[in-house]
Specification:
Blueprint (H helix, E strand, L loop, with lengths): L2 H13 L4 E5 L5 H9 L5 E6 L2 H13 L7 E5 L2 H4 L8 E6 L6 H11 E10 L15 H15 L3 E6 L5 E6 L1
Parallel strand pairs: 1-2, 1-4, 2-3, 4-5
Antiparallel strand pairs: 5-7, 6-7
Length: about 170
């Protein structure tokens, strides 16, 4: 995650006064740190990743950044297996940085998880500029284009595409 995208993510979490955030794709914890900085002091980040060793690294990064252990809940597993177990309308923000082939499923789960006025954010939607290239593209880029179209055409969302990092697709749930 670029510094600009991280700053935008922090701002978005603060804008919705996030107390409960779900993150798909823990990675090394960089995006989680930005989210935690933007969240309310009593907020909890629930982060899902199929690789437990990544989550362990992120746990250490959160601790080094000064966050108490009760500020993050780590759930190992595939996002589409874990997300259905999370509470309906229980989240202020859902950040999606997982498998691009599953982005439409993440969108559906996010709509269920978000409270009205909540925000869904997808990272990497420019796919290094490939989403606007006219030539043949790999399946993941085709899927990102489908995501962009679905968000744009949804009556349940107010979307915006932020040109920071590799693109942040943001949408507020009506």
């Amino acid at each position: 995650m670029s510094p600009g995208a991280g700053a935008a993510l922090r701002l978005l979490a603060a804008t919705v006064d996030a107390k409960a955030v779900a993150e798909i794709g823990t990675g090394t914890g960089v995006s989680g740190i930005h989210l935690l900085h933007g969240m309310r002091p009593d907020g909890v980040l629930t982060t899902v990743d199929p690789e437990p060793e990544r989550q362990q690294f992120a746990r250490q990064a959160f601790r080094a950044a000064g966050f108490a252990s009760n500020r993050a809940r780590f759930i190992p597993g595939r996002a589409l297996d874990v997300l259905p177990r999370l509470a309906d309308a229980g989240y202020d923000l859902v950040f999606c940085d997982g498998d691009r082939m599953e982005c439409l499923d993440y969108l559906a789960e996010s709509l269920r998880l978000l409270r009205p006025g909540g925000l869904v954010v997808f990272e990497g939607v420019f796919a290094d500029g490939r989403t606007i290239d006219s030539g043949p593209q790999p399946a993941e880029v085709v899927r990102l284009r489908e995501l962009l179209r679905a968000v744009r055409e949804s009556q349940d969302l107010v979307p915006s595409l932020l040109p920071v990092g590799d693109g942040l697709l943001c949408a507020v749930k009506r």
